[in-house]
Amino acid sequence: MEIGSNFIKNIMKEDVETGKHDTVITRFPPEPNGYLHIGHAKSIFINFGLADEFGGKTNLRFDDTNPLKEDMEYVNSIKEDVEWLGYEWENLLFASDYFEEMYERAVLLIKKGLAYVDDLSADEIREYRGTLTEPGKESPYRTRSMEENLQLFEAMRNGEFGNGEKVLRAKIDMASPNINLRDPVIYRIAHATHHNTGDKWCIYPMYAFAHPLEDAIEGVTHSLCTTEFEDQRPLYDWVVRECEMESTPQQIEFGRLNITNTVMSKRKLKLLVDEKYVDGWDDPRMPTISGLRRKGVTPEAIRNFCMELGISKGSGAVDSAMLDHFVREDLKLKAPRTMGVLNPLKVVITNYPEGQVEMLDAENNPENPEMGVRQIPFSREIYIEQEDFMENPPKKYFRLFPGNEVRLKHAYFIKCEEVIKDEEGNVMELHCTYDKETKSGTGFTGRKVKGTLHWVEATQAIPAEFRLFEPLISDEEEEIEEGKTFLDYVNPNSLEVIQGFIEPNMKDVKPQDKFQFFRHGYFNVDPKYTTSEKPVFNRIVSLKSSFKL
Ligand code: ATP
Ligand code: MG
Ligand code: MG
Question: Coordinates of motif 'HIGH' region in the sequence (predicted)?
Fold first, then answer.
């Protein structure tokens, strides 16, 4: 499927048709300071998807210019996630491999009188910068000679100054209406070990200087980023031009993905991990790619979701139910249907012969007959769900209650004859009778019942754990009250752990296998907590949704 017509594709088309570029080269440029989230998936989809439509190429480039926050753990997780989403990068690159070239380009700016070493502190620089309505003030160091700047910049590189003592700034225009052009800082001192370059450098380029150089060095034709960078575009173009780069990439902005009830910032996600609100970056409640994967969301669902989002400048929040919709669409024909009993209640079928076990046929997926039929055991003792029995039901309750008859999926009609309780009055088990004539698949039409229950045979049932999720954040981010942070809005009930049983033929399930449990929705076998004794199932989505595309 092709990405629908959009403004970025139109620019690319024109550039290829007019011969401005022979092909389209894009990049996905994550900073390795956290795990990727669903917002990054949109950027990956756009960068890889568009380049592919023009027969072009996409690089995976780590934008690793800040040694303080970056780590190889993040590099590895990002590679894994991009591959899992189904994309192949042309080159795997690190911005830090260009540090020497970036340094030389900065020296070129100094030689052209377009950069200077400033001794002002970070606070002073901020003060001097001015505001939207007030022009900035020039630093007293702005007029340093070219020779002095060259010598000081080299001394910065050689480690002769401490953190924050000096910076290198581009000399552009302190009165520009665009604050980004008021002599932005382009190099800072940071005595820190870098994950790739070790202790080779103690000065590091700032994003606004480094990013356009990275794109130009790689011959990127279209540098796609989110709309927050729109005001930085003049600086981006200035850097490419004044650093005399051969190749001239074009920055184009698109709208960031926001999703209702979803934290979409690595900084905040890291806080949830560090403060142990979740069990890691891959907690199934996290909107990270690894969290979605562990929950059971498929790459196909994520790609179809991105396709539906399309490409525009808008960034209004998308309903989280939309991703769920694409999960159901994807799993509908793929996931086998099965029966899992959550919160079990034992049922003894008193007129069924003791010691007898019969095998019943059960369709694996009525919507996809190719998935075939399995055999499930039935005997005198089964489990149903506590929720499917009420001693004193309200009107229109069609499940089991004393005297009522229901259908057991794939099996027989049973009727509740007796409720067995303990001394405190808790329901311990039910005694029922079955009617042999009502066997599923025999075409019995003698009488009708309104309720159908799922169940598992008790002696062979496999214990299992089911994990149900609610949004991690209970309120929308924008509504945070004064004096509170988003951590005050973490939903204390976002995880519900339930014990139960599954069918015996599921004894060999493997991590990441996906099933539809009758009435409960789609589940994934959790790769972290599943043991050979007990599988753990994460609910991916429930069955019902009011969401409409
Ligand atoms: P965060 O704010 O979550 O930390 P970031 O933008 O700092 O994200 P980067 O690693 O710099 O993270 O992002 C890599 C690419 O992904 C960038 O091009 C960025 O624009 C894009 N991106 C990040 N978040 C989103 C989002 N919510 N929607 C679309 N694209 C995004
Ligand atoms: Mg960033
Ligand atoms: Mg960020």
Answer: 30-40
